[in-house]
Amino acid sequence: MTTCLGFAAHQANAPLTPWRFERRALRDDDVAIAIDYCGVCHSDLHYVNNDWGSTRYSCVPGHEIVGRVTAVGSAVTRYAVGDSVAVGCMVDSCQQCTPCLEHQEQACSSMTPTYNGMDRQTGQVTLGGYAESIVVREAFVLRVPPALDPRFTGPLLCAGITVWTPLRRHGVGAGMKVAVVGLGGLGHMGVKLAAALGAEVTVITTSPGKADDARALGAHHVLLSTDPKAMQGAANAFDFILDTIPTRHNLNPYLMLLGRNGKLVLVGAIEPLEPIHGALLMVNSRSIAGSLIGGIEDTQALLDFCAEHNVLPQCEMIGIQDINTAFERLKANDVKYRFVIDMASLQDVNLG
Question: Does the reported pTM lie above 0.90?
Fold first, then answer.
């Protein structure tokens, strides 16, 4: 075992503070990673505050991890010391069930989250990437392509894969008309990736002030959902709608925008929604689906695609000392569009 310095919350609604803890000794199929950067996800804030009632304290958040291999177990074949690697939302699964065999590990009933999960072998709580280092099973380590800037790679492992999976699953590409509802951390990646795939992209927003940002990100059009005439004019216009709104909302106005066999996919809201009018699904044979992150194979494909097409999230770099301020800004939606922690800042932490 090795001692590791990170930042942890020890109870609900408490600030993150420096904390020393133990990382496990290398198993045969493990990779040890020195963490260079870790993205800040809105779910980190939810877990720290126990908003979902499932947090195990002490909690070290972080599942958008980028770093360098420092050691490998005896059975590791895909990575060597010095390799640039990444770790996303998962660190283990059974590797034997149907979802795992189909490379959809996120659907495994034994999937182990990178933090706030339970190690399948020891039963210990998993601790995430707001830390100096991490030890991860080789099958859940991703290779960072040389063309991808590691500073901005982290958010691809959560926000990126969350929107990439439904875009690919539903065949988004050239000739398709795609709408992205909401322009936050998920939405801005949805715009960038849909445009890079060749789709004609429209951002649907309540904020006229976001029009310039939307076009700068690659959107071809902006539709104000608060403009009844514009919404009526866009009826039946889209093949695919990616709904990134993170809270309870009304889907009916967006369903009206789908053409024949159109699909709306939810990737943001994980709570009850407003009632849906059944006739809106029957007309045009519309459908609603949901999607949650993606498998390891799909995530590697995303990293490779982003390297080839120069697609990166827009990030604001912070030091780990500023994480509590960053959380307050997250609450206020005051970030364009993701925070990333430069973990070199841990060297300046005063443990008192």
Answer: yes
